[in-house]
Amino acid sequence: MKPIDDFSFVKNNQVSKDMTNLIRLYLPIVGSDAVVVYQYLTSFYDGGQGRHKFAEILNHTLFDLPRFEAALAVLTGMDLVAFYQDLSNYVIELKEPLTAQDFLANPVYRRLLESHIGDAAVAELETQDLSQLRNLSKKFSQVFSDKGEVDLQPLQTKTNFDLDSFKQRMTLDGLYFGNEKQDVIALNNLSERYQLTWFDVYQLAKETSSNHKILPKRILVKLQQPQESDSQGFSHEEEVILREAKSSTPENFLAKVKMGLGAVTTTAKEKKILADLVEMDFLDEVINIMVVYYFKRNQSATLGRNAMMSL
Fold it and tell me: Looking at beta carbons, which pairs linking 81-85 to residues 24 or more positions away fall under 8 Å?
């Protein structure tokens, strides 16, 4: 993208210029630059009738190009703008901010806002709970005839990570978050980036957890692993070790190795070394192979910190 490049707006895509929810809900997350760009776009929207230069936006907002691109990226990430390109032109689609009710009902957006302004401030933004009141409103079919019926779909947000179902499975399996606000955002990002359902993410979270603690960074490492390679180059002994490494936790694997070396117990210091490797985001199977290498290199029945960290 260059300042002299052309862009146009999507036709017949006028959105409300009411900035209330943008300021109350989005500003703490997206920052002032993104709000300024959004306000410019809604103020200068022309119905998609003509082409414009990005230089017009830069001139009016007093932004340089990198600053504008960063703000635009944030707006697309929060589903306030969609950005397209064809062979000769960029196209901008404006989207309205969610209502407070829809925004706060999205578990990822809510926790992201809480991380910026705090739980108490977010609670103040909630709409009144009407569940205990008697609803006298009429249904659409009770008011309009069949000829006037319209099939209205509920508003969908870009983020649909089912946190409630995820947490229910956590409870059943005894898993827990180390830092819920940060972990929920990280899990949602993994779901979006790799196009995974909440259950796919949960299966990975369970598989890569350590002592029942969910570790999103280890999920990312797992997802970034290359596909299984041909094992014809491994000896029978190596294939046995690899299968065992992939099916055991580091503590269990270490205990089996030490038993083969004549050692009876795993010490607290050895358990701490394994726990530290987990916190460094190594997967269990990688840690297990490191243990194998360690004992092949060192004439000892005890795992040593310095040598393991060096390895």
Answer: 81/38, 81/41
